[in-house]
Amino acid sequence: MFFETNALVLKATKSVNNDIFLTLFTEKGGKLEAVANGAKSPKSSLAACAKPFVFGQFVLNTKSKVMKIDSVDIQESHFRITDDLESLAYGNYFLELCHLTTYPAVIDRVHYRLIVELIDLLIQKNTPYALLRAAYLVKLTKLTGHAPTLIPTCAACGMPNEIYQFSIQEGGLVCKSCSKKVHTITLNQSFVQVIQFMLEKDIQVLVKTKIHPNYLTKIIAIFEAYLEYHLDLKPIKSRNFLESLF
Q1: What positions does the domain DNA replication/recombination mediator RecO N-terminal occupy (predicted)?
Q2: Per-residue buried b or exposed e for 208-241, using 16+ beta carbons within 10 Å of the residue's own CB
């Protein structure tokens, strides 16, 4: 039986033989594992597709226990990402974060479209990489069902709340009373509005928006910690490489 779907290669793992195992984020099947037989050989018809960032239409043979890639129509290799150290660092970060926050064979077309857009944006000129990173982290809270409570109601006790104390543990803004019981981060109204804007707006709108670098730095720090806490994420290995560039 054959299964045809558009997909983005998240990860490529070489085997002891001539094969390469791929982690694909697919439009129709979610995150899937498949093997590209013989792809380590430059003469293989699958060699060009067996690399991270490749996007195309994959035909998967589902007869065996491990799916095999039958053929690929590459629509975008994104080879220019690997030509620049900064775009490569951000690209690796986005792919790893996508891999860490998705489950095998769970269809999520919203997340699929978002990561495809993010990778496409990396090869465009003057792309605000830090803004993409902040926006992806914020949107991941919503995609994974852990969007923070940013309304005038305490995330801990449910009482009316008019202060801007953010608790990662409680999942949003907490009132004065509850803020004494947990670690909080002091925000202001403008900062909260920026987070809400990122949650709601399309990524194509966000990349055209000017947001102060200090806001982006703080959002990245808060929401990496937020996702790690609520999703119990493994350490993001690519973060060290990314942050070593600055």
Answers
A1: 1-76
A2: eeebeeeebebbbebbbebbeebeeeeebebbee
